[in-house]
Amino acid sequence: MIGSVADKNVDLLEGLTAQRPRDIARAITLIENDSDDGRTLLAELIAQNSGAARAAVVGLTGAPGVGKSTTTSALVHEFRQRGFRVAVLAIDPSSPFSGGALLGDRIRMQEHSADPDVYIRSMASRGHLGGLAAATGRVLRVLDAAGFNLVLIETVGVGQSEVEIAATADTTVVLIAPGMGDAVQAAKAGLLEIGDVYAVNKADRDGADSAERELRSMIGLGVRDAADWTPLVVRTVASTSAGIPDLVDAIDAHQKWLDGTGALAHRRLTRARAEIVHIAVDRLEREMNQGNRGQALERLAALVAQGEIDPHQAVERLLSDS
User: What is the DSSP letter of 230?
Assistant: First the structure.
């Protein structure tokens, strides 16, 4: 046996403090897999880095084809120019064969691979809905401990189920492209309720003016308290980096508003609550399919299928079954 779990975790913690990419990757994998070692590491990580998270978390979401990956890459470049150490979590759909991430986003960001102050990680959604991976919240703690002061999260991009990013990010950027009917789709998806900054990307295309007008009009119809943040709208052409400095300025303005109003603490409380719920639900689901509870579930499922009890009664029995 080569070293104890504690020794290995000490090595990993030292590696995170030293900002070694290999150790960052190992720590994330342990936590993603939700192993006992990963849980121990997470507890030690929090004990070592006492206090609230320091890294700013910016989420990017939008429908497929709006240019999320290109925009993310352009943002990395601009934030690096401003002195930030940047980590990227690119959430990819799970492979139907291996269950792993398809790595498309990481391939598209190869231009940053030689920069020691940029870390890019593709994470598989593993069937988790909402555009994120189930372990996203826990992985943020690893990146924070590794000294990154900005984390960009790029969602899967599956359309109208991307609103979970708002519970995870400090600032949510919604990308919309002209000619795709995205303003209307964004309204249907609830994205106009979660965005802090909106970017009309591919603004060199026909229809950009119309898309921006529709977007501003829909934002204006929203009912807000006078003290609330009013979402900003910028135009970008991420492929040429046009408008990217304006987008970073808008993100910065929102971050300053969060700090100045105390809204940041509220958002991070919401993030912590969502993280606890996800872990509890995942653990409950595993328990429901294992051991005595798994057997009880099968028996109750048979009774529901036969019409002897209703699903609510089955749930009550299952939860009370020791």
Answer: P
Provide CB contacts within 8 A for 34, sequence distance 6+: 135, 282
Cα–Cα distance measured from residue 21 to residue 26, given in angstroms and rounded to the nearest whole number? 9
Work out the angle at residue 163's Cα, subtended by the Cα atoms of residues 90 and 260, and round it to the nearest 5 degrees: 90
> How long a stretch of residues is the chain?
322
235 and 291 share one domain: no
| Terminal Cα-to-Cα distance of the chain (whole angstroms) | 37
What are the structure tokens assigned to 283, written together? 């653990």
Checking if the pLDDT of 257 tops 70, the result is yes
Contact 121, 25 (CB under 8 A): yes
Hey, how many other C-beta atoms are within 10 angstroms of the C-beta on 137? Answer: 20
Q: How many domains does the chain have?
A: 3
Distance CA 204, CA 181 (A): 16
Task: Tell me how crowded residue 225 is: count the other CB atoms within 10 A of its CB.
Answer: 6
Work out the mean pLDDT of the chain and round it to a whole number: 83
Bridge partners (DSSP) of residue 237 are: 242
d(CA 121, CA 164): 19
Residue 64 included in any domain: yes
Question: Under a CB-based contact definition with an 8 Å cutoff, are residues 238 and 74 in contact?
Answer: yes
In a domain, 266, yes or no: no
Cα-based angle 172, 81, 116 (whole degrees, multiple of 5): 95
- pTM, two decimal places: 0.84
Lowest mean pLDDT segment, chosen from 29-38, 96-105, 113-122: 96-105
In this structure, what token pair is assigned to residue 123?
A: 């994470």
Q: Where are the beta strands (DSSP E) in the chain?
A: 56-61, 86-92, 118-124, 150-154, 171-176, 197-200, 232-235
Cβ 138 vs Cβ 275: under 8 Å:
yes
**Which amino acid is residue 148, in one-letter code?**
F
Domain that residue 24 falls in: 1-50
Place of tokens 């009664």: 313
3-class secondary-structure state, position 315: helix
